[in-house]
Structure formats: C-alpha cells, structure tokens
Write a structure and sequence with these properties.
single chain; alpha+beta; 2 domains; ten-stranded mixed beta sheet; two-stranded antiparallel ribbon
C-alpha cells in the first residue's frame, strides 16, 4: 500500500509539489506567528521579573509598559510595608543605542537589587555618570569590552564591565546609573517601573491586592499572563494565527481536493481494476485519502522549516531580535503537523468517496 501511495504521488510530481507548496506556505506562516507569539510571552515574563523581582509596578492605562511613568517617591512608601523586602526604581531607555535600536538601556540605582544581581563576567560593577555595564550578548554584537565607549542617546559612556543574568531581555541590553538615565530622558525623580521583592512567605495574590489598594492608578504585573493582558500584541498574534489557520485549512483543503479529484478522474481504470480484483471500497477510499494526507504532511514538514527560518529572518529584518526571540515549542511542531493532517483528511474526503464509485466495468472501457 505504501509503495503504491508513493508511486502515485511521484507519477504526478508537478501537481504534488504545487499542492504541497501551497500548504507549506500556509503552515509556515502559522509556525512563524506561533513561535513569535511564544517569544513575546517569554519576553513579557522577563519584563515582569526584571532583576528577578517578584513583581513589577507600572502606570495604569498605558498601552506599552515601557511608556509608564511613576514617581520614585513610591519606593520609600513601598519599603515601609511589612510584605515588601526591597523595592528599586528602573527607568527604561528605548532606542537609545544607535547601533542596536532594539536594545533596552536600564537606568538603575547602584545599591538596588537589580544592579547587585548582575553577574559580572568582565570588568567591575561600577555605575556612575559616565559608566555603563553591558549585557554579554549586546557586547558580543557590538564587539565591546571594558574600556570601550558606548553612546547612549547623546552621551558617551565608558564600559565598566560585562554582565550575564540569563534573562534575554537584560543580556541584550545595558545598564547605567538611574540619575544619568533621568537626565537623558528629562524625567527627574521619575521611573518606568518599580521592581519589588516580597517576603518569602507572602502570597503573591494577597500582596498584589493590598499594594493596588494602597497605590491607585498603578498596574501590577506578577506573571507573564498579566503582561500579555496589558499589551495587545499577544492577542493580535493569537487572532492572526486563528485566521491564517482557518484560511490554510480552507485553501489547503480545496487544493488537496482538486489535486486528488483530478487524480481520481485520471485513474478511473486503475481504481476499477483494483475493485475488479477484489479490493474493498473501504480500502480504495483509504488509498486515495492516504495520498492526500501524505501530500499535506509533506507540505506541513516543509512549512515547519520555512516558519522557523522565516520567523528568525523577519525578527532580524525588523531589528527586534534584541527584544523578541522566536521560540519554537514541541506544541508548535505538533500543531503544524496536526493542521497538515487535517488539510489532507478534509481535502481527501470527496475524492476518496468518488474513488469508491468507479464501477468495475470501467476496466473494460464501459460507462
């Protein structure tokens, strides 16, 4: 049976390739969007836990968390709370590095836990008006080392050290003194977010509710899902995936239907002969259906490769690889193959039925 399926597909290779290519493009788009969506969720989680904080406090009502504005005076009030161990303000400077506009520069207090948790791999942890610490991935991209010069906005800084945190968002960025960042952004006594470290025995939900009541007008992000709800990117990608998946099923199914229906018409004598020699209708239907599924799985496999490579290429082309890294999961691969099989089944149902209606008399040239 398998040999017959392969030989039938190879015999009409031009038609098989055309159909598989159409399916591959649809599945590739789905895989690319799913992997970028997964990368966005991972970035959102890292944004919540900057400096390995338990939660991040942002201004309520802003579409983009990086556009949040909070007074640094909130830090003292937060640290007086019994459920908070430490709080540190952070000012995010976006598009501040000309060589890599996607890299984020973090303005941080030298004595805050964000700066203290930077693991130095080269140089020293020194923050000042003219000193900058650089993440190891950004340092590799820009060929920086201790003693190098890095311009942030309009000011030049000397690289004091290279750090690694294991958090993509931080390792592809840089860190400067909070006061220097406030000068660059003209935001005196203001921060983008306040990272909060809770007491170990304090439930996150309870602390969130209490802090939110004490500070009206703030949004607290404690999980990746919280960050996804604040921004619309994840929802837009999810809806785009649903739309494209539906279109892929419809268009791919029609393509497979057309291909397999043409194959059935061209092979009426062959199918009639199989019927005449004792093949059951169910077996003939399975043969036609399996050819459609095989074509779709072939297209889905190629689409998976296109999606993975395409997502990475798109990220680099748009210059956002420092913020979002496509993340292909086993579930992404499973969805791609599942859609491929679904296309083959849906597209092969009618041709499979049509193949079972061919009368044995067709082998003799009868009507």
């Amino acid at each position: 049976m398998l040999g017959l399926i392969v030989s039938n597909l190879v015999r009409h290779k031009a038609r098989t390739i055309a159909t598989a290519t159409g399916i591959a493009l649809g599945v590739g788009m789905i895989v690319a969007l799913l992997s970028v969506g997964s990368g966005l969720k991972r970035t959102a989680e890292q944004l919540v836990h900057l400096g390995q904080a338990d939660m991040g406090i942002f201004q309520s009502g802003v579409a983009d968390p990086t556009a949040s504005v909070l007074p640094t005076s909130m830090v003292e009030r937060l640290e007086r709370r019994s459920d908070v161990v430490e709080a540190t303000p952070l000012l995010l400077v976006v598009t501040g590095i000309k060589q890599n506009p996607a890299a984020v520069v973090f303005g941080a207090e030298p004595g805050g836990f964000f700066a203290k948790r930077l693991v130095m791999t080269q140089g020293r942890r020194t923050l000042g008006q003219e000193r900058v610490l650089v993440g190891d991935q950004l340092a590799e991209q820009l060929h920086l080392h201790p003693g190098s010069t890095l311009q942030v906005k309009r000011q030049r800084f000397t690289v004091a050290g290279i750090y690694h945190t294991g958090i993509f968002f931080e390792d592809t960025g840089a860190t400067i003194d909070l006061g220097a960042a406030q000068q660059l952004e003209h935001r005196r006594n203001e921060a983008t977010t306040i990272a909060v470290q809770l007491r170990p025995d304090e439930p996150l939900d309870t602390a969130e509710k209490s802090i939110r009541q004490s500070f009206p007008g703030i949004t607290i992000l404690g999980t990746a899902d919280d960050a996804s709800r604040v921004g619309a990117n994840g929802q837009l990608i999810s809806k785009a995936v649903t739309i494209i998946a539906t279109l892929a099923l419809i268009l791919g199914g029609l393509g497979v239907t057309n291909t397999m229906a043409m194959a059935v018409l061209e092979r009426e004598r062959e199918l009639a002969l199989l019927n005449a020699v004792g093949w059951r209708r169910r077996r003939i239907a399975f043969l036609v259906l399996a050819e459609g599924v095989a074509t779709s799985v072939l297209g889905a496999g190629v689409g998976l490769l296109i999606g993975v490579l395409g997502a990475d290429a798109l990220n680099r082309a748009l210059g956002v690889s420092s913020v979002v890294s496509p993340h292909v999961t086993p579930w992404t691969i499973g969805q791609a193959l599942l859609i491929g099989v679904a296309i083959g089944v849906l597209g092969g149902l009618y041709p499979a039925w049509r193949g079972t209606t061919v009368a044995p008399t067709r082998v003799l040239g009868g009507a």
